[in-house]
Amino acid sequence: MPAKDNDRLRRITFSEAIREATVQAMDGDDTVLALGLGVTDPKGVFGTTLGLKERFGEERAYDIPVSENAVTGICVGLAISGFRPILSHQRADFMLMSMDQIINNVAKWNYMFGGQDSVEPFLEYRDKGVLVWCRSSNPGARELQDLISTPPQGGDSRPFYEWVAISAAKWNTHGNVGLVVGATYPDELENIRDLCPDMPILIPGVGAQEGSLERSTMAGIDVRGRNAMVSASRGVLYAGKDPATYPDEARKAALQLRDRMNAMLEDRNLGWSR
Predict the structure, then answer these.
(1) Number of folded domains in the chain?
(2) What range does the domain containing 39 cover?
(3) Does 3 fall in a domain?
(4) 6, 47, 86, 216: least buried by Cβ within 10 Å?
(5) CATH code of the domain covering residue 133
(6) How many of the other CB atoms lie within 10 Å of CB of 208?
(7) Residue 258 within any structural domain of the chain
(8) Distance between CA 268 and CA 274 in Å, rounded?
(9) What's the start-to-end Cα distance of the chain, in Å?
(10) SS in 3 state form for 197-262?
């Protein structure tokens, strides 16, 4: 900006101003990270990140792969974990690819794990079921859902997903609450079933995500062999490509899944005929 009559004002470019603000933020707080495509290259994202790696080290200033959506999701996780990431996108049109994470994750996070008051309006519909997301089936679930936490008032330390299950059981005063637990984590599913012996559990992740049907079914059923709802959406949805035979192929895939589950129950004297 022009100096005019005030000697304290100086003329700098937008990129220089951004770089100075970033340096000030990183100097004053070790949790501030700078990452983005080209952060460490000679151009330094058009001058906004020049020298950050040399000043703060490669653990706080680093380049990223060309995947705007995924890296924005990483920054969401960093922010939730207590860091303050500064994510640089080189062009606005690529930045729009980050909106999926911002709209579908960041904007909803408070309601995903906002406690009882965030699900209370739904619990009041006594004739409707409410499924609470407890343990997801994706590989990155361990990053946040396995974090050990202790209630503010003190007590046991448990993984976060177990606290979700315990809380959901407390909210189940009308008998209309269930849980969503991925088939790819059968040990955790068994823990959750022990914590919530009578609640229904929806189990995604069998099929395309390679969750074990037998292990997840046996871990998810209650003592009567019920209350486990196994989802294998893609295994049925993509059972065939020929429009002429697709209905039969999809039906065949669904029936095979059902028959395999029923055979497991029969082997343990938990079949539907008892």
Answers:
(1) 2
(2) 14-106
(3) no
(4) 6
(5) 3.20.20.70
(6) 13
(7) no
(8) 11
(9) 83
(10) CCCCEEECCECCCCECHHHHHHHHCCCCCCCEEECCHHHHHCCCCCCCCHHHHHHHHHHHHHHHHH
